[in-house]
Amino acid sequence: MADVTTRINPLFLRDEELRQGIEFLYFAYREFTKEPDTMLAEQGLGRAHHRVIYFIGRQPGISVSDLLSTLRITKQSLSRVLSQLLREGYVRQRPGLRDRRQRLLELSPKGIELERKLTENQRKLLARAYREAGAEAVEGFRKVMLNIMSEEDRARFPAQATPPLSGWRA
Amino acid sequence: MADVTTRINPLFLRDEELRQGIEFLYFAYREFTKEPDTMLAEQGLGRAHHRVIYFIGRQPGISVSDLLSTLRITKQSLSRVLSQLLREGYVRQRPGLRDRRQRLLELSPKGIELERKLTENQRKLLARAYREAGAEAVEGFRKVMLNIMSEEDRARFPAQATPPLSGWRA
DNA sequence: GTGGTTACGTCAGCCATGTTGACATATTCC
DNA sequence: GGAATATGTCAACATGGCTGACGTAACCAC
C-alpha cells in the first residue's frame, strides 16, 4: 500500500475511496477473527465451530434447518462441526415439542462458557472501536453495514426506532 | 435470529448492540465475497487468487515479501496461488532494479481485466451501500472500521485531511 | 573473496472447511 | 398409506491455510 491521493480528481477519489472500503472489509474482518481463531485452535476447534456455537447461543432452541439457513452451508458441512460439538459436550439437542423430527439445539454450560470467552474478545474489540469512533460514527457504521449485507440478512435486524439512543456516548 | 430488544436495560442493549456488530461483520463480509467467488470459480480460481490479484493491481511492482506481509500468509501458501497466476498469464514478474533478488509483480492486461471485473462488483456493492447510507454514515463507517483493524493495517491508510470532502453526497 | 544474510522458490504432507451425490430413518401431513 | 420434511451419514473432492526441509541467487560486510 502506498502512493495514494495527491491531485484532486473526483473520479480518482471515488475509486480510491471505494478501494479503501474494500480493504476496510478485508483488514477489519481479519483482525476480528484473529484472536478467537487462536483460542479455538487451543481447544482443537476452528472458526466453523465458533459460528455454530455463536448462533446457537444467540438463539437457544434453534432448529438444525434454521441454523443451516443462517449459516448458508450444506448440512454435510454443518454435520461435521456440529457432531463434534455434540460429542465433546458443547452443545445438546432435544426433540422439538410440536415437531418431533426436529433437533433443537442449545449450549451446555461448557458451551456457554466457551461462547462467552470467544465472543467476549470480539465484543471488547468492537466496544473499543465504537468508543473511539463515537456514537455518531457507530450509527453510520451500522447503516453502511446493513446496506452491504443481503436483503435477507438485513431482515434479521429489526429497524431501530430512534437512531442511536443505545448508550454509545463514548 | 429473533426475540430481541423489548425492555430498556442498558446492559442488555449494550450486549445486543455488540452482538449485532459481530453479525454485521459476518453477514456483510459474506455478501461482499459472494459474487467475486462465483466469478472466480468460473475461471478455476479462488478467493486467494483474488486477494493476490487485488493487491498487485493496487500496487504494481510490489515485491513478493511486501505482498506476503500484506496478506499475512506463508510464502508456501502464496506460492501456490501466485505460480498459478503466473502460469496462466494473469501476473508477470520482473527482477528488481536496485535489488535483483526481488521479483516485482504486476498484472498483465488479462490480469488487469480480471481484477477490474472482480473489483467492479465489490465497488458497485459498496457504492450502493454508501449512497443509501449517506456521506455522514460513510465517515462513521470509515472510523469504526479503521478502529477495528490492527494498528499496522490502519497505518496503510493515510489520515484523511478534512473528514469527508470526498464526493459522497449521495 | 569468502561467508553470512536475504529474497525467493519448491517439495511434501497435514488440517479445516467448504462442496456434490447418494442413501437412510423418523415423523408429519394429506 | 404414501409423499414430503427434518435430520443424519458415508464417500470423495477442492481450496487454502499451515509446518518443515532444502535449494539458488544476490547482496553485504569484513
What descriptive keywords fit this protein?
homodimer, 170 residues, mainly alpha, three-stranded antiparallel sheet, 3 strands, disordered N terminus, DNA-binding
Element order, helices and strands of chain A? HHEHHEEHHH
Strand order of the largest sheet of chain A: 1-3-2
The low-pLDDT segments of chain A are: 1-7, 162-170
| Amino-to-carboxy terminus distance of chain A | 31 Å
> Could you tell me the strand content of chain A as a percent range?
5-15%
Quaternary assembly: homodimer
Largest interface: A-B, 65 and 65 residues
Structural class of chain A: mainly alpha
Radius of gyration of chain A using CA atoms only: 20 Å
| Total number of strands of chain A | 3
Mean pLDDT of chain A: 90
**What is the makeup of the main sheet of chain A?**
3 strands, antiparallel
The number of helical elements of chain A comes to 7
Judging from the principal axes of the Cα atoms, what is the shape of chain A?
globular
Overall description:
Two copies of one chain form a homodimer. The first copy, chain A, has 170 residues and is mainly alpha-helical. Chain A has seven helices and three strands, in the order ααβααββααα. In chain A, a hairpin with a 7-residue loop joins strand 2 and strand 3. In chain A, helix 1 (10-42) runs antiparallel to helix 5 (109-133). Chain A is globular. The structure holds a DNA duplex (30 and 30 nucleotides).
